[in-house]
Amino acid sequence: MHRRTMLVAIAATLPWATGAMLLPRPALAGPTPSPTGAEVYIIWPYDGSVITGGKFWVRMGLRNMGICPKGVDRPNTGHHHLLIDTDLPPMDQPIPSDRNHLHFGAGETEARIELPPGKHTLQLLMGDFNHVPHNPPVYSQKITITVK
């Protein structure tokens, strides 16, 4: 057997070579169930929008789920969190509160925000009464905008 063939044969027996390590793992999520068919989405701005000036409105949409302020534990409800220039946080912990994770715990569905010039990503994530993502998590697609 040629050396290259032998290396390929050996590598094929390793879990990472067969893709076993690439299988998706079940996402950990918080204890609050989300309703079936729940969807959150960004109404405005659209993906690819060019915003002139740094201030603009973000309008948040939600289907098959209700809005409720933080601290109020009602079934099938939650409140919006806007993720700016970051990836989704751990789904089994409270969503951080910082300049990249804006909380709308009063039940807001729109907000005026300001970003510096450049490309930015925006994504919505619903949180329960304790700011923990639901199970399964309810989050929007990540969009990219440019601020000029």
Automatic annotation (TrEMBL):
<dbReference type="InterPro" id="IPR025512">
    <property type="entry name" value="DUF4399"/>
</dbReference>
<feature type="signal peptide">
    <location>
        <begin position="1"/>
        <end position="29"/>
    </location>
</feature>
<protein>
    <submittedName>
        <fullName>DUF4399 domain-containing protein</fullName>
    </submittedName>
</protein>
<dbReference type="Pfam" id="PF14347">
    <property type="entry name" value="DUF4399"/>
</dbReference>
<feature type="domain" description="DUF4399">
    <location>
        <begin position="58"/>
        <end position="148"/>
    </location>
</feature>
<keyword id="KW-0732">Signal</keyword>
